[in-house]
Amino acid sequence: MIKSKLPNVSTTIFSVMSQLANEHQAINLAQGFPDFNTDYELISRLNFYSTQNYNQYAPMTGVEKLRFLLSEKYSNLYQSYYNFQDEINITSGASQAIFNVISTLIHPNDEVIIFEPAYDLYQPTVELFGGKVIPIQLKYPDYAIDIEILKEKINDKTKLIIVNNPNNPTGRILSENDLKQFEQILQETNCYLLADEVYEHITFDGKAHQSFAKLKSVKDKVFIVGSFGKLFHITGWKIGYILAEKELMKEFRKCHQFNTFSTHTPSQYAIADYLENPEHYLHLNDFFQEKRNLFIEGLASTNFDVLPCEGTYFATANYSKISDLPDDEFSKQLTIKNKVATIPISAFYHNKIDDHVIRFCFAKKDETLLKALDNLAKL
Ligand code: PMP
Ligand code: GLN
Q1: Per DSSP, what are the bridge partners of residue 316?
Q2: Which of 196, 214, 312, 316 could form a disulfide with 164 if both were Cys (CB 3.0 to 4.6 A apart)?
Q3: What is the 8-class DSSP label of residue 218?
Q4: Is 32 in the pocket of ligand 1 (CB under 6 A)?
């Protein structure tokens, strides 16, 4: 028997709910992935590079053109400068970037602060490297970050704070003022910050994404992570990236080179060509805002109580008027009986706090959303 390094961890809720959805032919609004086609222009670039034999190892740091274009993108959008040679690296999805930041930074007994509900990758990864997770509970229904509580939790052992903005699963976003408060904390302490910004281009109602890349005074303490899976509807390609000041990046690369070495080559070339045209990502917020509106307006006429959604492609809703089952059981029943799969929010809390809230992914064709709404309206 192997002595488990993660004795309390089971299969991720995303796999569990997708499998249940498949078994019961339910509409899968659980796992976060689009069900519509990827732009043919991007696919044809991938095809081009594969057939032109761009099929050997990419540089460990990532394809140069792609890093160069990312550097330009961050200069244009946030007026923040990251050198494409020393401060940007392509990774195998945002997941590998996050895993690698944690492996780079965390020594046994280091403390890492996360805000729950939290994406399920953070805690087990910290624990794999002997770190201790200090969760701060964001409370239903606002899920707002209380900076005073954060300050109280920081001590000499605090090595890292992980922030996911826009937030999965709550759909909340941070304001410019929130970022200023984080900046002050980073100036006054020895902590690093990992900004998981994979939903950077999915913010709604004219509110701009506040990237931690804007915080120039603490650039030497911040890692920024992004994902092309979210940006270009290609979650299965697993290409992401990391931006960090060059001393941080030097250490990151020491781990990265032995973690995976490099990332899928033809995808990187294809994405680089596609990224050249900002039109390919600057309207993503409008595209998803229409889907959000369609879905939450539909949900508002059911017995679900919809919570605000300022960003990401996830909506959350309370089902107390429908059932008093625990949220994991409710999600299961909804999948099996009503043929709509969702994610119970308790899965994002280490102590499984259950406010009777579930998460729906609305990155789906309108017809898929309408069909799901039809089923939900019967409850
Ligand atoms: N962070 C968050 C908040 C996510 O929702 C996801 C899931 N897509 C990831 C990281 C991982 O991204 P990727 O698929 O690029 O590994
Ligand atoms: N990020 C996606 C979500 O939150 C799923 C990623 C995964 O399946 N690991 O649903």
Answers
A1: 359
A2: 196
A3: G
A4: yes
Q: 167 alpha carbon to ligand 2 midpoint, in Å?
A: 13
Q: Which helix (H) or strand (E) holds 15?
A: helix 13-23
**Residue bearing the CA closest to ligand 2, atom 3:** 32
Q: Which residues are registered as beta bridge partners of 241?
A: 90, 226
Give the residue among 209, 201, 216, 181 at the shortest CA–CA distance from 79: 216
Tell me which ligand sits closest to the C-alpha of residue 14. Answer: 2
Q: Specify whether the CB–CB gap between 79 and 208 falls below 8 A.
A: no
The DSSP symbol for 216 reads: G
pLDDT of residue 189: 98
pLDDT at 21: 98
| d(C-alpha 169, C-alpha 357), whole Å | 10
pLDDT in tens, 1-46: 999 999 999 999 999 999 999 999 999 999 999 999 999 999 999 9
Distance between CA atoms of residues 140 and 353, nearest Å? 10
Q: Which amino acid is at 137?
A: Q
For residue 32 and ligand 2, the question of a CB distance below 6 A is answered with yes
**Each residue of 199-255: pLDDT tens digit?**
999 999 999 999 999 999 999 999 999 999 999 999 999 999 999 999 999 999 999
Ligand 1 closest atom vs CA 32: 8
User: Which of these, 157, 154, 108, lies nearest to 128 by C-alpha position?
Assistant: 108
CB-CB contact of 222 with 212 (8 Å): yes
